What we know:
This protein is mainly α and 194 residues long. It is built from 7 helices and 4 strands.
Amino acid sequence: xxxxxxxxxxxxxxxxxxxxxxxxxxxxxxxxxxxxxxxxxxxxxxxxxxxxxxxxxxxxxxxxxxxxxxxxxxxxxxxxxxxxxxxxxxxxxxxxxxxxxxxxxxxxxxxxxxxxxxxxxxxxxxxxxxxxxxxxxxxxxxxxxxxxxxxxxxxxxxxxxxxxxxxxxxxxxxxxxxxxxxxxxxxxxxxxxx
Length: 194
């Protein structure tokens, strides 16, 4: 009876061992499948969508929800007013559907005090233009000028001072200096410096 019991135990162990291994393998495969199904990697966007744009429409491309340019003039500083007028005249996005250019610059021919050779100044419509200092007004009136009069052969500037050379007996040295600039450009740079 002991031999039979011993054989039955071995037989039972030999039969149950593969079944238990198969059961464990089946449980492992089932758990692996469920973990794989439940895991979804984070979705990677193909295109970057900036904040403030609409990406909800499949028919249209992403577009801004609000205007990109500020359509109002925030500050009354001279350079902001000049840039605002320049944008309105030359930026097709800000002009909308209008095909013709707006006339934001008034053409002044007779009152051009900038010394332009063409005698034609483009003066932007600026608030309180007459309240600006004289140099700034002259600069604004001449900033689009491309041809200034040249100062060549200045007899009053380049002649010798005869009174100082006769009293001391020694000739005073002369300095001849050529500057590649024009008088109008110098005045404009001086206005910006101040």
